[in-house]
Please model this.
Amino acid sequence: MPSEKVIQCCQALIEKKWTISFVESASAGKLCNEFSTVINSGQILIGGLVCYHVSMKEDLLLIPKGTIEQYTPESAIVTKLMAQNFHRFVTSDICVALTGLASPGGSETHSKPVGTIFVHIIFPDKEIAKRFEFDGNPEEIITQAVDAVANLVYEEIHL
Model:
């Protein structure tokens, strides 16, 4: 069942007649899934792509290997490139990319601990990038990230 924030965001998108797409890594399709469970989501949800492994980011989204090696797969620049490159192939008013560290075993460091999530959102007239640090187990971190994305989109389209 979607959260109130996801429902509110979807309703706002429906009212505005805007569409949304997702390119996800750490959330592994959870954004797309949550948005799909809202009544009338077919009016706004274009779809999504899960690019969990580095090879998907490089092969499908054409992110240069050197960029991933330099900045790590879970970084602001890789998230930005995911959004921009996916948005070139999928027509939607809003495109959301999400990467991050929901569990140990990635590129976590003292300055980028587990719970760090990067979001990059392309709107019709601007782009925004955010970094979050959430606490909890992997499921809790992703749930918080989904709500944060829904809140960001909602706030931007209601300005």
The mean pLDDT is 96. The chain has six helices and five strands. The two ends are 27 Å apart (CA to CA).
